[in-house]
Amino acid sequence: MWGGFFAVIPLVTVHFSGPVAQGGLGWAAASVGLVLGLRQLTQQGLTVFGGAWADRLGPKPLIVWGCALRTLGFAWMGFSDSLPELLASALLAGVGGGLFDAPKSAAITQVTHPDHRTRMFSLTSLSGNAGMVTGPLLGTALLGLGFRTAALVAASVYVLAGLVLAVTLPHLRPEGRPGSSLAGLRQAAKDTRFRRFTLVLIGYFILSTQINVAVTLKAISLAGPGATGPLYGLSAGLAVLLQYPLLRLVERWLPVRTALVTAVALVGLSLGLMSLAGTFPALLACVALYSLGTMIVYPTQQTLTARFSPGALVGSYFGFSAISLGVGGAAGSVLGGALVDAGAHLGLGALPWLTLAAIGGISAVGLAWALRGFDGGPDGNAAES
Question: Where are the transmembrane segments (predicted)?
Answer without folding.
Answer: 20-41, 123-145, 151-172, 197-217, 229-247, 254-274, 280-300, 312-338, 350-371
